[in-house]
What we know:
mainly alpha; single chain; 61% helix; elongated; 0% strand; 9 helices
Amino acid sequence: MFICGRGKKEYLTGEIEAPAKTDAGYKKWKTENHLIMSWLINSMSLEVCENFLLYESAKDVWEAVRETYSSSDNTSELSAIESALHDLRQGELSVTQYYNALTKQWQQLDFFETHAWKCPEDGQRYRKIVEQKRTFKFLLGLNKELDEVRGRVMSAKPFLGPSRSFC
Length: 167
């Protein structure tokens, strides 16, 4: 987002190529390319960035990072998110902080969702099921002193009851 916001995405995609070293625009390209490379490198942890310091261009760094850390099935990322969600409880967090922590993990999980529904109603029903499971996760992760509130919420009718019939 930062690089796109600065109007420099073309350096990552290769749309702006390095001019010949004798070209009048080479100095400007080199300066901007190194600036973008520094943005990329500085956004990484020390252990990660060390692997990308010797690349010649921002495009090369971008492609190497994508090749190294991108996965078509995103198994490791999904596993890490699911693990974090499984372990997440209110604990010392306020209810708002706990909810925000859950929401952050759910947003990351939603980013990887790629379902091709045969009919739109299936997607809507699935979304309701996900919302119900997330509500349960939130309620069940609250501290014990909120048991009374949890009980009242869970006994309320109707309680996010999605229809389970599919196309």
